[in-house]
Each structure stands twice: as C-alpha cells, then as structure tokens.
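The material for today's practical consists of a large collection of protein records. A record pairs a protein's sequence with a compact description of its fold. Instead of coordinates, the fold is spelled out as a row of discrete tokens. We will come back to this pairing of sequence and fold again and again. Here is such a record, shown just as it appears in the course material.
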Amino acid sequence: MCVLVGYFDGSGSHVGSVVRTLCGFLGDLDAWLDFETRWNAVLDKPCWPKRPRELHMYDCAHGYDDFKGWSFAERLALVGDLVQVVEGTKGVMAVGSGAAISILQMLTSADSELLKSERLGTPVDLVFQFCMQQITHWAKTGWPGEQAAVIFDADNGPEDLLYHEHFNYYAASEKFGPYLLGVSFQDSVRFIPLQAADLLAYGTYQWALQKTVGFPDGEPYFPSIPIFLRLITGVDADGGIYESAAIERLLAQVKGHHG
C-alpha cells in the first residue's frame, strides 16, 4: 500500500490579521523522499551566508533569526530555488485555502448561523474544510484506494488543538473518513515538507490579502507573490480563496442543501 502524506501549515493567526490561510502538499512516500533530497541540497549550497536550519518564510522575508545578515538578494534567491524544488517534484499536489476575516463579519445573523450549522462559521472552519475536500478529491482521483495521513506543523500553539479537533470531526464523517488515515503534529526542522507548506501558506496569505482587502501598507516588503505565482494561482483556480463572491456562492449552496 502506497500511503499518501499531506503536510500542512497555516498563516494569519497573529493578532490583527485580516486573512487566514491553510495550505500544504499531498504526495506519496516516494515523491517525498525525492523532494527532501533536493530541498536539502538547496539549503546546503555553499553560496549562502550560512546553512539555515530550515526555511521559515516570515523570518526569511524579514531577515530574522537564521536569515539575519542575509542580503535581500540572497533571501530572494533561496526562496526561488526552493520553489523550483516544489515545482520539479513529480507526484506532489498543492492544496490550500485563504479566507478574509471581515467577509464573515458582514453576514446577517441568520446567514452566519446557517454557516455555523455546517461548520463553516469561522475563517478556520472555511479553510480547513476546503483542504479536507481537496485531500478527499485527490485521494479519490489521483491515488484511488489510498488514504492520506495528514501532518501539521507543531509550532502553532493553540492552533494545534483546533486543527486536531477539526480533523477528528472530518475523520469520523462518512464523506471524508474513508480517505483520512490519521493526523499528527511534527517539527518542521525534522519533517522537511512542512517547510514547503509554510512557504505556500505565506505566499497564499499575501495573495489572499491582495484579492480580498488589499495591502494595508502598500506592497509587501518581500515580493512573495511573483515567486509563488504559479503555485498560488493553482490554489485560487481550485476556488480556495474566500472573498465576497465566494461566500455568496457558498451560502447559496448551503441554503440549497437546507431546502
């Protein structure tokens, strides 16, 4: 049996955030072995000021921690090389979603309660369910008969408990349960594909911010969107970015189910 593994991370959980994202990649074990070898080869390149322990996009974008003292060009080049690793890994599928927090705040009380009844009442609810839907879709169509083990970055504090509770809910359902093998929370230094999930979550956060509310302070300091564009537009094409029109479509579907 060729077990599928999905590695996921979120962005936008900080105080004051206006967008939430949850993103990752789904692939089989052989694909992940190839991926890890090539990802480490990029981090090991002697041209960097020092070998970073891992890619953490926020630190890389702002020149913090492992990336303190790195030039802007060096940080940009590193991320570009790692995006090429992701794009060049056969058998790995990008999955992700983003939701503007303000979108749900503008709903009527009745519409809000209706979405809550379908476990879609918060930004985390929206992005989590969408990712579960995508995992189920790809498990059925890309790897028929296989189940997916889902691994989240363990560095999310209270988010870990929330993700665990959400996963258990979907794993117990008739629709999603047959395709979900189990869940765990791991260190992104040791579980390297989690670094790619962080990369996609960060880029999707910027993309969703641009699509839904715009950048509060103009263009982001680190030009992440051009680097991630090919990956992120795949997330957008799947319908994973929740803005006003997407919420209206979702409400129409839920109301249809309720008759």
The chain is about 50% helix and 15% strand. The longest strand covers residues 19-28.
